[in-house]
Design a protein that fits this description.
The protein is mostly helical. It contains two helices and no strands. The chain is rod-shaped and about 60 Å long.
């Protein structure tokens, strides 16, 4: 189970990333926009990995409990 720090860090990356992306669009800074997109995707990817780990852990526990 991902800990609270991971969840907070992932959410922070997503929020900061979207903010940078928006600032980049408004200021016409392709570099800032790209950095924002990358940071958002980093948070999003880590979140998906954490969810996958949760599912694997749950399946493993279910299997062990059946035996």
């Amino acid at each position: 189970m991902p800990n609270l720090n991971n969840k907070v860090e992932n959410a922070k990356d997503k929020v900061v990333g979207k903010t940078k992306e928006t600032v980049g669009k408004v200021t016409d800074s392709q570099e800032m926009e790209l950095k924002g997109k990358l940071q958002y995707q980093k948070g999003n990817s880590k979140e998906k990995i954490d969810k996958t780990e949760d599912k694997i852990e749950e399946k493993l526990n279910d299997t062990l409990n059946e035996k």
